[in-house]
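Worked example

This section walks through a single chain of length 161. The input is the sequence exactly as stored; nothing has been trimmed or padded.
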Amino acid sequence: MTPTQTILIPNQGGFNFIVHQSEGNFPKSLTHVDFVAGTKMILNRDGRLGVGTANPGPFRLAVNGNIRAKEIKVETGWPDFVFEDDYDLPTLEEVEKYIKTHRHLPEIPSAKEVEENGVELGKMDSKLLQKIEELTLYIIDQEKRIKKLEAINTQLMKERK
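Given that input, the structure is written out below as tokens.
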């Protein structure tokens, strides 16, 4: 097994963390190809960090691979507006029509969109909670209608006797 070394190289105000194979007791000379292929992590001068990629793009943190964490905190808006009196809750008929036409829920990206563009977890959590809150409102309404029908049914049963 060839020993490897990690080198921290300044790069335009940032740093490249490079893993390369050693030759004997001395590190081998790095070519441009070695430099690019060996880059495991890059920290740009503007604070953008790439792990497993030499190009973090517009992101503060770009990871080419899996991420494991105990917790991730996302700070985004929350859909409590669903419970406001002026919220325009779509009818179930409108939702059904949308689903039949588009094959996914309103305001939720399609599988194709997610495959092409990924998904922003904070925004998606917010949208999913909005859908849960809407479902809760539908259930509350249905519960009221069921109780009303049960009362009517009880009254009819009494009159029938």
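What to look for: The first strand starts at residue 4 and ends at 11.
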